[in-house]
Amino acid sequence: MPIITVKMAKGRTMEQKQQFVETITKEAARILNVKEEWVTVLFDEYDRENWASNGQLHSLKFGEGFGKNGAE
Fold first, then answer.
1. Which of 1, 2, 8, 20 is an active site residue?
2. Where is the 4-oxalocrotonate tautomerase-like domain (predicted)?
3. Which of 18, 27, 39, 62 could form a disulfide with 66 if both were Cys (CB 3.0 to 4.6 A apart)?
């Protein structure tokens, strides 16, 4: 039973997450040769003020709302 954890910044829509889990579930089941109902996807979502890369908080680096409408 594959359990897939996705860590990402908050801000994606329910529709984006639904499309993602449908796609990742189908591909995981196909590649791992398991039933789709055995695949579990968990989202760990973080505020941008609690995420940093290259020494800078994402809330400062990217600004408010970054990524909410897809890859900006």
1. 2
2. 2-56
3. 62
List the chain pLDDT tens, one digit each, 72 residues.
Answer: 999 999 998 889 999 999 999 999 999 999 999 999 999 999 999 998 898 899 999 889 887 766 655 444
Q: Which domain holds residue 47?
A: 3-61
2 counts as catalytic: yes
Number of domains in the chain: 1
CATH of the domain at 47: 3.30.429.10
